[in-house]
Amino acid sequence: MDVKLDRNDRTDLYEQVAAEIRRSIADGEALPGDRLPPARDLAAVLDVNTNTVLRALRLLRDEGLLEFRRGRGISVAGVPERGAVLQRTRELVAFARQQGYSTQELIDMIVAVP
Predict the structure, then answer these.
(1) What's the CATH number of domain 13-78, 3.40.640.10, 3.40.50.300, 1.10.10.10, 3.20.190.10?
(2) Domain-wise residue ranges, the chain
(3) Which of 23, 26, 60, 103 is deepest in the core (most CB within 10 A)?
(4) Higher pLDDT, 55 or 3
(5) Neighbouring C-alpha atoms within 13 Å toward the C-beta of 91
(6) Is residue 30 within 8 Å of residue 36, measured between CB atoms?
(7) What residue stretches are annotated with the HTH gntR-type domain (predicted)?
(8) How many CA atoms lie within 13 A of 88 on its CB side?
(9) Which residues lie closer than 8 Å to 32 by C-beta, 6 or more apart?
(10) Do the Cβ atoms of 21 and 83 come closer than 8 Å?
């Protein structure tokens, strides 16, 4: 996985790391099921703090792109499109809750959509 960071860019380093890993997955360099190197190793290669890499990895996990397994490390779980759908789903759930709808009511609405 070829990750390039631009320290002159105003984008946070963890977001740059996440974007590069996301790109690697989208380009097929890292496929579902592939394991990523440990965060400590990625941090050393990128010359950033391990916490920066961990923050990027957690972001990608929350997007549904990575899966953390105790004792097995971090592996690719999905493709960016799935991550985008998960992000929009989270936004929809938050919006529905804000409007007073329960999760089940939201599910019923989604099922009813043609």
Answers:
(1) 1.10.10.10
(2) 13-78, 82-112
(3) 60
(4) 55
(5) 7
(6) yes
(7) 11-79
(8) 6
(9) 76, 77, 78, 79
(10) no
